[in-house]
Structure formats: C-alpha cells, structure tokens
User: What shape does this take?
Amino acid sequence: MGLVSAGLIAVSENIFHGLVRESEHTAMSDLVWLKVDDLINEHFDKTKKLGLSLQGDSVIRKSFRESDFDAVTTLLNSQFHQYFVTAGIVDLKKIYILDKKYNYFSESTEIIGKTEGGNLPCMGVLVQARARKGAERLRPMHALCSQVDQHYNFLTIVPIGTLSPKGYVMILTDFSSVLKGIEKDLGMPVLLRYPDGASAYQSDSWDELGMSEAHISVKHDLKGDDGNVVLQVDVRRNISAFQQQWDKMGLYVTLASIGFIVLAILIAFFVLRKGFYPLEQLRLAAERLSQGVFQKVSITSYPEIDIPIQSFNKMAEKITQLIEEMEGEIRVRKSAEKELENHRDHLEMLVKERTEDLAIARDAAMAASNAKGTFLANMSHELRTPLNAIIGYSELAQEDIEGGETAATIEDLNKIINSGRHLTELINGILDLSKIEAGKMEVEYTEFELTPFLRSTIDTVKPLIKEKNNTFEMEVSEDIDILNADETKLRQSIINLLSN
Assistant: This one.
C-alpha cells in the first residue's frame, strides 16, 4: 500500500511538472510573438520616416522629375551613407526609386552593387502594391519578403508626392538586426537563422550543446509574401531557478507523503491488531453457532466492532430460541401424529358402520318414493272426479241464475268456479310430482287474454288480502292483450307471490 501511494505521488508530481512546463511554454510563446509584432511595427515606423525624408528632399524630387538617373543614384548613395550607415538606425541594404507604376528607375549602390537588368526583388509585394487603387496608393506599406541568397528581408514602400504619387521610394533592410531586441527587452538569449541555414545572430549565452531540463525553447518562423520562411527565430528561457524551487518543493512533498504513509501504516497496524481479535472471536462463535452451540462474544471498546458483535449476539439468541421452539413443536407434532393415527383407525370403522346404515336408509327412501308414486297414480282419478262434479254443478247454477237472479249472485258463483278450478290445478300440481320424478313434466302453451286472467287470479287471494287488512291495486298496460304461456303454472306462480 505504501509503495503504491509513493508511486502515485511520483506519477502525479511528474504529470503536474509537465503541465507547468507546458503552461510556461505557451505563455513564453505568446510573449515572444507579441514582442516580434511590436518590433515589426517599430521598425516599419523607422523605415517609413526615412522614406518620407527621402521623398521630401527637393534635390531628389527635382532630379526624379527630370529623369536624371545618374543624379538620383548619386544623391541616393550620399543620403544612404549620411543617414543610415553613419547613424546606424536600421541595417539598411538597398534603396530603390520606382516610377508611379512601380517600375525600376534608380537605386543606391553603396553596399550592394547595381541590380542587373533592373530586376527588382520581392516581386510578390510589388504585385500587391500595383493592385492598390486610389487613396490606398498614398499609404506607406511594409512586408516581409524572401530573397534567395540575399540577407535583406524587410521591405518598406513610401509614395513620392502628396495628392497623387509620382513614384515610390522602396527601402530594403535586414530585419534580423531588429529581432536582437528580444534579448534586450525580454532578457532571453536569441538565435536567428536565415532560410539557407546561415546564422544571422546568436546571443553569447546561447547553449549550443542542446536543450536541457533547465531551459524552455520557443521557435517562430517569420514568413514572407510567398509563404516561404524569411527568418527563423529561436528563443530560450533559463528556468533553472524555477527548476530548483520545484525540485525543493517536490522533495518536501515527497518527505511529507512518506511521513503520512508511515503514520498511516502504524495507525492501520494498531487498529487492525486491536480489531482482529474480537473479529476472530466473532468468527469462531459463528462456526459454533452453525453446529448448534451458542456462545456470546465479548464486547470491546470499539463502537465500529461492537455494533456487529451486539447484532450477532442478538441474532444468535433468537436463533437458539427458535431452535428450542422448533424442537418442542416437533415433539408435540409427533405425539399428535400418533394420536391421529389411532383416530384414523377408529374413524375407518365408524365410516364402515355409517356406510351400511346409509345403504339401508337409501333402500327405504327408494321404497317410500315408489309407494308415493303408486299412491298418486291410484288416487288421481278419485281426486279429479268430485272436483269436476263441483265445477259442473256450479256452472249449471250459473246458467239458471243468469235468467232472473242478480248479478251479485252470478259473481259469487264465478268465484266458486274459479276457486274450484284452482283447487283442481293444485291437485294437478300434486299429481304432477309423479311426472317430475319420471322426467315427463311438460309446459303447455296456450293463448289467453291477460286482463281477465289477472282479475280471476286476484279474486282467489282477495279473502286473504282483506283478512290481513292490506290493499291491492293492479295496473295492466294497454299494449299487452293476448299472452302465450302455460296458464296454470303462471297462475300458480302469481298466487304464490301474492300469498307471501
């Protein structure tokens, strides 16, 4: 565990160190680039002032207007030597005078000889200058240009004339001398190289043996109008002081980490030593409990360990209690099973006896049912005959009275007839029991008028209604006239309903 922690600390330190170096490199790169941009603008201001000074010289302007090539060349050499070589303001290489179409007119020959055939350098910049229109031609311009085998790479063009350019002054300088200011302003050694590999400038403190961990290097390629590299800028920064401070901090962090690791190991050893004994006792108690032996585990002074020990003791007590209860239930169940077996044997004997009794009772019931059917069949004729006679005489009496008796007498006779018919239906229902037992009960559908049927049925139960001091009202829908049903069974159903 300690080795893993130390390894993690070392890896984290290296990663953080790399991030710090990367952050320092990014910041240094931005700083160098801003400085290069400031030097370019500062150098352009200087060369522009020199160009304005030349185009403002009345002698040069007069010779230019008169197209006196030799006079212009002589004057340029004089001005070149007077202002730029002696003063040393810029590292001047060449001065050209161009006509208003940017064509060659004259040049200085003080340091670099005359251009052969009047071929101008930095043609890409001149093409851009010729493309300018109107007031744009009156503004000075500058650019970096790549010139093969020549160490001048900064071009400044200043118009001759105020309202409309009559020509142009083109100044060529070596920009590498300007970039030496990086060392002066930023305090960092600088190495400048031309595209051909030649050294333009190297600081005295530059380490040619190569990079070390105590340095951070930033490289910038300055490109010209055609996209090719004009000058290579390499800047280094000595971070040995920062490295020493970082190493010291890393040593402190490492020592502190080791101290914490040792302390953590000691604490872990002490805690584990104190905690392993009760845990071992807990394990042994669990094994004994699995064998059916319960033994309590002693409580320690560590709450983290006491909580599971107390839970185990409670659980073990409940398990022991459950085991004892289960053993008691098992003994009771075995006793009950023995008693149940005895009852089962006795019950089988009782069931056998009851079965025999039920067989005898069943035979007696079947004999009684057969006797009842025989009786009903024999009595059907005797029961129907007197009832039919009563109904017949009542009908004859009704016919005799219709001639001269009152309507009330006729109504009473009708009730006698209806009651007698109903009595016949009841007796027929009793006699139909034999048909039901034989499975020959049938429903006889007939068509009859509903209203007379209901009135005759109600008349049968009116004495019972009056006896109970009840009131009965009947409403029959006019939409129903003829009903198709078993009149006898329907009448019996209505009387049974009203009798309740």
Q: What stands out?
A: The chain is about 60% helix and 15% strand.
